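Now produce a polypeptide, keeping tokens residue-aligned:
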Amino acid sequence: MDQDYERRLLRQINHQNLPAEPRLAKCVSAACSPVSVKSGDRFIPTRAGSNWSINFHYANENCRSLNQSHKAKDASSDSSKDAVAYAALLRNELLGAGIESVPDPHADERRHAVLSQDSRSLFRYTVHSKRVPFDSDNEVSPYSLSPLSNKRQSQALRSPRKPARKISKIPFKVLDAPELQDDFYLNLVDWSAGNLLSVGLGACVYLWSACTSQVTRLCDLSVDGDSVTSVCWNERGGLVAVGTHKGYVQIWDAAGRKLTTLEGHSARVGALAWNGEQLSSGSRDRVILQRDIRTPPSAERRLQGHRQEVCGLKWSPDHQHLASGGNDNKLLVWNSSSLLPVQQYSDHLAAVKAIAWSPHQHGLLASGGGTADRCLRFWNTLTGQALQSTDTGSQVCNLAWSKHANELVSTHGYSQNQILVWKYPSLTQVAKLTGHSYRVLYLAVSPDGEAIVTGAGDETLRFWNVFSKTRCTKESKSVLNLFTRIR
């Protein structure tokens, strides 16, 4: 055996056999002595403070004491049960409580003891996993960020998506229109069912063919010292009415022949509207004349309700009601038999020129106000109630509904000079078209309902593709809908 190791072992045995006081004195003297004691490189840790048998003994004692306390409580449970039963008996006899069963007074304590005994562990580790029947289509991956199953995701990806609506921001054709007047109260552009565009330029009316792009002059009023203030085609597209500054209404056919001249107004005729063979004309003299071109002029009807110039006229699709707008900020609705308006709307704060009846909803009328109003308003003429309105931010000059979708287009003047396409009834803007440098005072829709033409004081006509030919799928299929069932 190594002598150094034997010497250290003997020193350790002698140290353990020493009494407590000399050992303490020796330790103090060793701590105070600067001489270091030579020791080996082996370290033996001491575990004197960790007596595991004592700890386990304390744990068993705690469990044993808990069980003994439960036994003591069970021993005294009989007396407590008797007390509870006696109290229930008194309540039934004196108060009529109607108690039928006596609860165990120590049930809650036992439940608490069981829970405390089961929850002796400080932490519990459990794994919560969503178990679904094994199915490759309905399986939900725990790493997926989508709440949809694989089957639902594949269905969503395979389902056809609605193509995004794209409206060109630039016109597909621009025509020069010299002497096109910049007058808010005139209506100088209209598109016929025969695909002929009529435009009033100064004292002349010109026809432009959308099929051949040929331009012909229909009439010239400079010989009589007159000028054109309004043009309007009939529904069939064979006749065009021309209103003049002197208050006359001339009827021409598409071949360039003048059929008749209607008198009766004492001022310029700025608004025209056909209803079959009947023609309504609105003038600055505040009168609306309704005449049948097949009868003598003496059979005319005079509608008086506006206090200033009549600048807007439109017949409803069912040919029963006429809407008129004037510079007196009034919107009036007339029927085919009465000489007085059946409805009057006074919410606009400026002249009402923009008027349009909806071809999709019976009795729905849209109107727009001038510079001081700038609002687009909708009316239910069946009940006479205002539906909704929106501020466009600019003077509303014209309105037109799409023939295929529940949308409408509006043209504006001061101060944006823009063209807006709206979706009804949400009134969200589908497109915003700009290009005119003056007020967009004139608007007409092509016979196929897909394109529009706009005219402004910048002496240009611009053609835009704004509407789609696909018919709205949400259109009502009711048998009471006059526009889909009866022709």
Notes: The chain has seven helices and 28 strands. Residues 291 and 297 are 7 Å apart (CA to CA).
